[in-house]
Amino acid sequence: MNMSFIVATFFASAIAFSVSLLLGTLGELLTERAGHLNLGVEGMMLMGGSCGYVAAVRTHNLVLALLFAVLGAGFGALLYAVLTVTLRANQNVSGLALTTFGAGLANTLGSTVPNTNTPENIAAFFKFHPLELEHTVNGILSFFHQISRFMHIGNSSQAAFQPYHINNPVLAFINTAFLSQDIFVYLTILLAFLMTFYLFKTKKGLALRMVGENTAAADASGLPVTRIKYMYIIAGGMLCGLAGLYIPLVLQGTWHSDITAGKGWIVVALVIFVRWHPIKAIGGAFVFGALSIVGLSIQQFSQLSSMIFFNQYIMVMYPYILTIVVLVFTYGRKKAWRGPSAIGSAYFREER
Amino acid sequence: MFRIAKKDDLPKWKSMLIRIASVFVGLILSGLVIVPLGYNPVTTFSALFGGAFGSSSALITTIKIAIPLSITALGLAVAFRMKFWNIGGEGQILMGCVFATYISHQMPQSTNGVVLIVLMGVAGFFGGAVWALIPGVFRVYFRTNETLFTLMMNYIALFIVQYLHFVLWRNPASHGFPGIKAIPLQAHLPKIFGIHIGWIIALFLAALVFLLIRKTKLGYEIRVVGESEPTANYAGMNVKKVMLTGIMLSGGIVGLAGMIKLTGDVYTLSPDITGNAGFTAIVIAWLSNLSAPVIMFVSILIAALEQGSQIIQIKSGGSAAVTGIIQGLILMSALGAEFFLRYRVVRRKRYVQANHPVTGEISGTAEQPSSENMEQKDKQQIADDANHVSEGSEVVPEGDAK
Question: What's the rounded Cα separation, in Å, for the pair A52 and A261?
């Protein structure tokens, strides 16, 4: 095996690993932009994952699976919203309660479908890689080949079809590393761009940011603060649910209890790491995903992995240390933006 | 239509009643949730109760679970008093265990048991305190968000323990299985009434924390800092010193909880030694309204849920995870109930909108109270005005604020 192939497959698996992180980060980002720190991401991911996966196993229908994942996690977010927006409960503790509840619900629900795998048709859908070069080019070429044979055009019409192979090493690397992903991956990245546009270029995005920055001012300017908060907290939870669904349905192909294995907490760190910016979340999620699995890949190189800084248990630590560094610098500089300022405090109109 | 207004402090029995009622609401809600999942609420709850308190051995296990939970919650409560959101209990427990284990490995085999236990206790306190002080220092000097910092510290501690477990401290005598050498036999906590003496330590710490918060100068300063940092500053308190001391105590007590679980229950440091106690204790501290005596009581209840879940799994073949649902819903309804302790919903009878004669601003939030509760309303208004200056539950004696 040559080096570039190893690196390319590592990139590919890092991207696949990062998708759920990215989706979750986008969800939590929306929530935090509305001024609410929801520590229940892990719980919502588990709720969405279990509801969606159970629906997939029972109905063999991808659309229903997605729908139930969104509904399950959205319900969790709704509970959180009722507690923190309407009842003004402490956000940290409410989030933790949601994680406890979500994990309990997910593991109970998941135990009703023991030892099952993702249904064939759904697994096949995610095995399809729309941008994979060889496959796509060959599809197009063979299509034209068929046509030209049918129409008797040109001299080569009787020749056998010559499938296309990538010879260029750079192209091969790009193909394996970045283009061999399922459609979910590309849609998620697209979503990050759309969300950036929404947040910074539209009126509704401005309203959302205003609620998160200065709730009282937003209220005074006539924005329906409570409705906006509910909307984005629930939308954020729904995205977390999709993130949770991707793990059992595609990454693992089966359900076991606590399947998210702390990804929800990584998401909370990631949102700070990318400083509440959706496009930066793409890179951030990739860095965190890559560092989470690089320790396993590096074991092939024994002289490297024997050094303490390249040990797999030490390497998984780096994203968290990096987050702390970002956190310190975010809050340390006098003029730096420290994230939506309404985060953590309940808004009470009559409090001055 | 409706307006929400601040409520005055309720009499103690009334707020207690609301809290207890909220636990029951949580139980009813969780009953409603588990029915569609195929669980009979009555049998589930009775199995839970029987599994936790039904026999003396069950009771002993429940108390064993409650000991580290209660000590962790006591520690966290100290930090929460200062509005320092220490959610790094997991990491502080782990680091307490790491330091205690290190001491037990370094001391000679012949060390006296009492000496060893005391040294390990000091080490455990130190480990937890260090792990809390790192975010604490950044919070105090750079105003770094401590919620997220302590959360990150949990992971770093967990990976350190994994590294020790799988690589650095891996016991060569364990035939290829990863694992850390157990602590020596003389370091095991002695037992009284069939339970290791951690329960006495827990009761002792509860009394200590109670007295610290209620009766000492430091405890008073901690409460004032928690109410309002500017106030503490005006009053001439050294806010930074108070906060750092409080954070150190908080982390130290949590670290001690880890050491007690290590020496009293499991005897071997492993990555899953915390059993989520760091997070569960946050729930306990909050449910108890940060009061030390109540923490002891609530810890037993939560421990009962955890212990009872094992019985559900054995008896009915169901999933032990079902207690997560119950625990989560009880906590949620307790959190929701807090709203009814702090606020009251006022009905607006008529909404008079009149322009202010001078500024032209709308000043028409004046409500017309309905006749039947007019008198009550007036009283409320006067009380509101009186309480205007010193909001919040904790009463700060004015004379001392110098």
Answer: 17
Which tokens belong to B157? Answer: 């501690």
pTM: 0.80
CA B87/CA B278 separation, integer angstroms:
7
Q: With an 8 Å Cβ cutoff, are B321 and A324 in contact?
A: no
- Within 10 A of B275 (CB to CB), how many other CB atoms are there? 17
B327·A79 Cβ contact <8 A: no
End-to-end Cα distance, chain B: 45
Report whether pLDDT(B91) > 70: yes
Find the closest chain B residue to A313 by CA distance. B163
Q: Please name the residues in contact with B399: beta carbons below 8 A apart, sequence gap of 6 or more.
A: none
Number of Cβ within a 10 Å radius of residue A214: 17
- Higher-pLDDT residue of A18 and B49 is A18
Q: Suggest the residue from A96, A100, A333 to mutate for an interface test with chain B (most B CBs closer than 10 A).
A: A100
Quick: pLDDT tens for B129-155. 999 999 999 888 888 878 888 888 988
Compute the mean pLDDT over every residue in chain A, rounded to the nearest whole number: 85
Q: What is the pLDDT of residue B351?
A: 52
- What is the rounded CA–CA span in Å between residue B327 and residue B301? 10
For A98, which residue in chain B has the nearest alpha carbon? B328
d(CA B33, CA A105): 9
Residue B293 corresponds to which tokens in the numbers above?
A: 């005596």
Q: Does B282 contact A96 at a Cβ distance shorter than 8 Å?
A: yes
Average pLDDT over residues B353-377: 46
